[in-house]
Design goal:
The structure is a single chain. By secondary structure, this protein is mostly helical. The chain has two helices and no strands. Helix 1 (about 20-35) runs antiparallel to helix 2 (about 40-75). It starts with 17 loop residues before the first helix and ends in a 17-residue tail after the last helix. The relative contact order is 0.11.
Length: about 90
Amino acid sequence: MTKNRPATKGPNSDRLSFEEALARLEETVQALEAGDMALAEATRLYEKGMRLARLCSEMLAAAELKITQVQTAYGEQMRLPREEPPGLEE
């Protein structure tokens, strides 16, 4: 398994990438929106969806933190040289 795949919490603690978790979340939402299931099953799916949503959110926050750390380590964001407005050249 790759190190960019945090474990999910719960009985199925298989490791998911962000893309896999998001795909499962989308499938869960579609199943809930279809609405042709018993209340107990809908509740179970809702809980699963909330876990997946939290997992996706945590992964996005971790990626944002990593980007911030890289930017800090290498100085501020790369800046392009400013272009002088036409007519101000000497």
